[in-house]
Design brief:
Elements: E1 12-22, E2 25-29, H1 35-49, E3 52-55, E4 63-67, E5 76-81, E6 84-89, H2 92-104, E7 121-130, E8 136-142, H3 150-162, E9 167-171, E10 173-174, E11 177-178, H4 187-190, E12 194-195, E13 198-199, E14 209-210, E15 214-215, H5 220-231, E16 236-243, H6 248-253, H7 286-302, E17 307-311, H8 318-322, H9 324-332, H10 341-355, E18 359-363, E19 376-379, H11 384-391, E20 396-398, H12 401-404, H13 426-430, H14 441-444, E21 447-454, H15 462-469, H16 472-482, H17 488-504, H18 531-541
Parallel strand pairs: 2-3, 2-4, 4-6, 8-9, 8-21, 9-16, 16-17, 17-18, 18-19, 19-20, 20-21
Antiparallel strand pairs: 1-7, 5-6, 5-7, 10-11, 12-15, 13-14
Helix pairs in contact: 1-2, 3-5, 7-10
Length: 547
């Protein structure tokens, strides 16, 4: 056994002679900061090998967790010798990461949910010193287009933690569904969480709709459970409600939130059954801003994360430009025109969450206007948004679509079930560089990290999301924990071993030779792009950003 089976790759690892054997029962001593880590260790040792963990007082345990405040927040040190195991860390996050590495050294079977056999676990003698390269190591999960039940969110959290990924960006609302209960406005979920039709195939006007009712939402108790479950595994859940565009589901529930038509009537719309961008933004009345201040107050009580996503992307300004009242509001507020209402709206809500000690997270369209340095930008439109944020001194999370969109196809194989976009395979993910090569040290420090975005227009089950997330998520975890510039061939050797762990977890990942027969979806047409075409699109999209 060598470090070459560990994913993500540790910063420093030395393997010596001998091993530590765990069988029957082991004694563990741990400070309170290691409670979640000991729970994780206990669960897997018992399930995978019927090894019982006994928590003991003092420092005589065969497995010892030791506080070391000299280590960084998420760093750990793992020492395995014949007479015992020591995991040192400065707090709970480091202890959990140390346990994840230790479990990977335990060999086959440890990731299974249950074992019928008593067996001995043999762990090679080693010393590992490790810490992450980036603080933000995330995946965005879109549950607005297709809802996932709580149990599936728990499963995703477990897999993120297994790869030392620590952010779950939770995309909770969009045109196609509102997924979080707001007590002050019950129709958001009574109406906004359900649609009676769903588009099939590509995001264009020719794609058919089928009578396929879809919906669901998380109660506030569900949200509290998800947040607590994730926190125990070192994953912070960052919510997003998308405003003032991508809001047709909210307008379907409360028509007064929409922009009146030419006849002065409020829009009577359904929850959007199609993909793409709805033509209905929110109106910019003070009453609408107040509505979402109330929504945010409930959301902030549910999610303790410092970052709160407010969207801000792909806002159709046409209805504002055609609406006399919107034109009047823009003039009254001293704005350059109705399009500026997009940024005015976001600024009102940014100020509101700022008073609660939170930070706005928004897509890189916000760079088309002045933004404060306490906003974090999600750089999604190629590299241009990332670069502009850094040039303006604004923190950024890198997630360019041509490298980090995990709904994009994984190869040119015609059997790919969802042949959307450009090819983003495991090797492309492994080669991703979150920090531009030209960045100064000061600019590089503004890159908080990166995330993959898993949009769900074509992903209607946990099974399909498995196929799109893994093993690309394994490569993502290594890039963000271990740093860039690794050897892909060497990573591939470790990945071959690591995939057996995913097999034990029941993950239906994409095989290197392509999709399995059940994963193929003949007849689901989607637009395929080449890299040059997508780059031209990115250049056009970002013309307003790069000046």
């Amino acid at each position: 056994m060598s470090m070459h089976t560990i994913i993500p790759r540790p910063r420093q690892a030395e393997f010596g002679h001998g091993s530590c054997a765990l069988t029957g029962s082991v004694s563990v001593t741990a400070p309170v900061e290691a409670a979640d880590a000991t729970a994780l260790l206990t669960e897997h040792l018992w399930a995978g090998a019927r090894v019982r963990v006994d928590i003991t007082a003092g420092d005589a345990g065969s497995i010892r967790f030791e506080l070391d405040e000299s280590l960084a927040a998420e760093a750990y040190r793992l020492d395995v010798a014949e007479d015992g195991i020591v995991i040192a860390a400065a707090g709970s996050a480091g202890f959990r990461h140390g346990v994840v590495t230790l479990l990977q050294l335990c060999g086959e079977g440890i990731w299974r949910a249950a074992s019928a056999l008593l067996r001995t676990i043999t762990i090679p003698a080693c010393r590992i010193e490790d810490e992450p390269a980036f603080a933000w190591r995330g995946v965005m999960i879109d549950v607005a287009r297709h809802f996932l039940p709580v149990r599936e969110i728990h499963r995703i959290v477990d897999l993120l933690a297994m790869h030392k990924l620590n952010r779950l960006h939770f995309h909770l609302t969009d045109d196609q569904g509102w997924r979080v209960q707001i007590n002050a406005y019950p129709r958001l979920t009574e109406i906004g969480a359900w649609r009676n039709r769903t588009q099939e195939g590509a995001a264009d006007a020719t794609a058919p709709e089928v009578i396929r009712p879809h919906g669901g939402y998380y109660t506030q108790d569900d949200i509290r459970e998800i947040v607590a479950y994730a926190a125990a595994r070192g994953v912070e859940v960052v919510p997003e409600i998308d405003l003032p565009g991508h809001s047709q589901a909210a307008i379907a529930a409360y028509p007064e939130l929409g922009v009146p038509g030419s006849d002065g009537a409020q829009p009577q719309v359904e929850v959007y059954p199609r993909w793409g961008v709805s033509a209905y933004p929110l109106n910019a009345e003070e009453s609408t801003v107040d509505f979402f201040r109330t929504v945010l107050d409930e959301l902030l009580d549910l999610f303790p994360s410092a970052d709160i996503g407010l969207g801000g992307d792909e806002v159709p300004a046409g209805p504002w430009e055609a609406d006399p009242r919107s034109q009047e509001l823009a003039r009254e507020r001293g704005l350059g025109g109705p399009r500026e209402l997009q940024f005015w709206f976001l600024e009102q809500l940014r100020q509101h969450i700022d008073k609660r000690g939170r930070r706005m997270l928004a897509w890189d369209e916000v760079l088309e206007h002045e933004v404060t340095s306490d906003v974090t930008v999600l750089g999604w439109r190629g590299d241009a948004g990332i670069g502009e944020a850094l040039r303006r001194g604004v923190p950024v999370v890198a997630c360019p679509d041509n490298k980090m969109y995990f709904d994009y196809r994984q190869s040119d194989d015609p059997r790919e079930p969802i042949p959307v976009g450009v090819v983003v395979g495991v090797e492309e993910v492994y080669g991703f560089e979150p920090v531009p090569a030209w960045a100064t040290p000061e600019q590089a420090a503004l890159v908080r990290g990166a995330q993959a975005n898993l949009w769900a227009e074509h992903l209607d089950s946990g099974r399909n999301r498995d196929y799109m997330l893994w093993p690309r998520g394994c490569a993502l975890g290594e890039v963000l924990w271990s740093g860039t510039g690794g050897d892909f061939a060497e990573f591939s050797e470790r990945l071959a071993v690591h995939l057996t762990r995913l097999d034990e977890r029941g993950v239906e990942y994409r095989r290197a030779d392509g999709p399995l027969p059940w994963q193929e979806r003949p007849g689901v047409s989607s637009r395929v792009q080449n890299q040059a075409e997508r780059q031209q699109e990115i250049d056009e999209l970002t013309s307003a950003i790069v000046r």
